[in-house]
Specification:
By secondary structure, the chain is an all-alpha fold. A two-stranded antiparallel ribbon has the order 1-2. It starts with a helix and ends in an 8-residue tail after the last strand. Helix 5 (98-112) crosses helix 24 (503-519) and helix 10 (221-233) packs across helix 24 (503-519). It has helices at residues 2-14, 28-50, 53-63, 71-96, 98-112, 117-138, 145-160, 177-189, 194-219, 221-233, 235-239, 247-266, 270-273, 276-287, 296-308, 310-338, 348-356, 382-399, 403-416, 422-428, 438-464, 468-473, 476-491, 503-519; strands spanning 526-528, 536-538. It is built from 24 helices and two strands. A hairpin with a 7-residue loop joins strand 1 and strand 2 (536-538). It has one domain (20-523). The longest helix is centred in the middle third of the chain and has 29 residues, at 310-338.
């Protein structure tokens, strides 16, 4: 009991006071715009509920590139009427009694605010960790596809001390960041699949904490708690824990980088600017897992230039970039001898670019896992294959410029439309048999949680972000991360798993919209207190700008 109290006291001392909500109270126009948007959403759901499932299948097949749909997509579309109709009718009922609904939501936020910040954090982090531990014990997934390659590549690295492909030749086809993390894990805990999964549990729980910290600075204590709760229980955030994948560590280090660059940007202490070098090393290591993030410091430089002036932004980012290129230079120099040329990250860059930009693709690049012939396989080495992929992709752009925007839309749609492909790998090969209904059930539950979050995010962008005070209160680095991901997806590949790092950002936006609705029901004067804080009279759970 004494140890627990000491931990809670330590956490409380590190948390600065935050208002329950630090978001603008919605104006009358925004309130009506929100009601209208929700009404349109409910109407669409009701229409989808009335249409027969086979009609939805035919419509989706017509919109697809090749007229074919995956079995999982077919099951979801056939079940759509049974799901969308009750949700649509329920949404209309809530709109009809929107004042009562807002008061109910306000009460729910009040329940979230009852524990002190330290008590809430300990509870949510322990709950997130236990949920992920339960998942990896129940779903004992075996490595398949890319995950198996990472595992085997790491074993060869440990056995030989060299980065080799299955034929024993030096390779740079996979970025080295995640295999190095796996190698460190195996070296410490032994060559067991439990070790990286336990690391996933820790980093996944850390992502919950970072979501809370970032949201707290943006929209207040109440929305931060809801955001953390959403990420803690979000099915794919839990489900990827059983896979040997880059998604969880990349998301964690990305959020750490966003938090750090925001702190450095706000600091007026020149000594703090020197920590930008450590941030640069972190950016470099993160880019070694997912190279798409390599140009993100350009976006953060533009934000700090606008906020603090170009001299300050240049001073910080010069340190950041110089440190960031160190691991890139080391790896690229190694590749000159290993694969015949300077490769900053991986030789699969050109291949993936070609997969996402060719006459046959729908934007995912998954066509080449079927009957299509991969033209880059004619190359004699992986470096030549990468260069050939770049040439073929750019040649496709040159000959078919009109398809660039069409494919960009398809890629973003493929990335954002649903959340369930991960179950193919998690349930596809397991150490113990599972019920046949387990995967469809998890897919449905995941999308029933993902789609409302996506809709609420859309409402935040379309209804509220036009207001100057709403833009000022938002975290520009989170917005940039989302925009940057969409842009890189539009020109690269659009697969569902690429939206995994965006789930915390989408959850913060969804919680913010629900917070905006809740503050409409806040009484003008009330007496409340949060957790262990002393009671005081204030306008409850409302802060920030009016």
């Amino acid at each position: 009991m004494g140890f627990t109290g000491a931990v809670l006291s330590k956490i409380s001392s590190q948390l600065s006071p935050a208002p329950p909500f630090s978001i603008p109270v919605p104006s009358k126009g925004e309130k009506y715009a929100l009601l209208f948007a929700l009404g349109m959403f409910a109407t669409v759901l009701v229409v989808l509920g009335i249409l027969p499932g086979e009609r939805l299948v035919a419509l989706a097949s017509h919109l697809s590139k090749d007229g074919q749909l995956a079995p999982a997509s077919l099951r979801i579309l056939r079940a759509m009427p049974f799901v969308s109709l009750p949700i649509g009718v329920g949404t209309w009922i809530l709109l009809a009694w929107h004042r009562q609904a807002a008061r109910g939501l306000y009460g729910l936020f009040g329940l979230l605010l009852r524990p002190s910040p330290a008590t809430f954090l300990c509870s949510i982090l322990c709950g997130a960790a236990l949920l992920r531990l339960a998942w990896i014990i129940w779903i004992r997934s075996l490595p398949v596809s890319d995950f198996r390659e990472y595992h085997e590549l790491t074993l060869r690295l440990l056995e030989t001390g060299r980065y080799l492909n299955p034929d024993g030749r030096p390779t740079a086809f996979r970025p080295p960041g995640y295999p190095v993390l796996l190698a460190l894990t195996y070296a410490i805990a032994g060559k067991t699949l439990w070790a990286p999964k336990i690391v996933n549990v820790a980093l996944g729980s850390g992502t919950v904490l970072l979501t809370y910290v970032l949201a707290r600075r943006t929209c207040g204590e109440a929305c931060a708690r809801l955001s953390a709760l959403l990420v803690a229980i979000f099915p794919s955030q839990v489900g990827y824990t059983s896979l040997l994948c880059t998604e969880i560590p990349f998301s964690f280090f990305l959020l750490v980088s966003i938090w750090a660059v925001a702190k450095i940007g706000e600091s007026t202490n020149r000594r703090t600017w020197n920590s930008a070098a450590l941030l640069g090393l972190l950016f470099g290591a993160t880019a070694m897992m997912r190279p798409q993030i390599a140009l993100f410091p350009v976006a953060t430089f533009l934000v700090q230039w606008r906020q603090k002036g170009w001299r300050r932004a240049f001073a910080v980012h010069l340190r950041l970039v110089l440190a960031m290129v160190l691991p890139i230079l080391v790896w690229g120099t190694r590749n000159i001898k290993a694969v015949g040329g300077f490769v900053p990250f991986s030789t699969n860059a050109g291949v993936n670019f070609y997969y996402g930009n060719n006459p046959w693709t729908n934007g995912t690049g998954l066509e080449f896992s079927g009957q299509l012939t991969d033209q880059t396989l004619s190359a004699k080495s992986e470096l030549e294959r990468s260069r050939l992929g770049w040439r073929l992709g750019l040649e496709f752009w040159r000959k078919h410029p009109g398809r660039i925007p069409e494919l960009a839309f398809r890629k973003i749609a493929m990335m954002m439309v649903s959340d369930g492909t991960w179950t193919h790998w998690a349930f596809g090969a397991t150490a113990s048999p599972l019920p046949s209904a387990a995967r469809p059930f998890v897919v449905v539950v995941g999308n029933l949680m993902y789609w409302p979050i996506l809709v609420l995010f859309g409402l935040e962008v379309l209804v509220f972000r036009w207001r100057r005070t709403a833009r000022a209160a938002a975290n520009p680095y989170l917005d940039l991360c989302l925009l940057y991901t969409l842009l890189t997806t539009a020109f690269w590949l659009g697969q569902e798993r690429y939206h995994f790092p965006l789930v915390p950002i989408l959850s913060i936006s969804a919680a913010t919209v629900l917070g905006r609705i809740a503050v409409l029901a806040a009484p003008s004067e009330d007496t409340r207190h949060t957790g262990d804080q002393p009671e005081q009279t204030e306008r409850p759970m409302v802060g920030g700008h009016d």
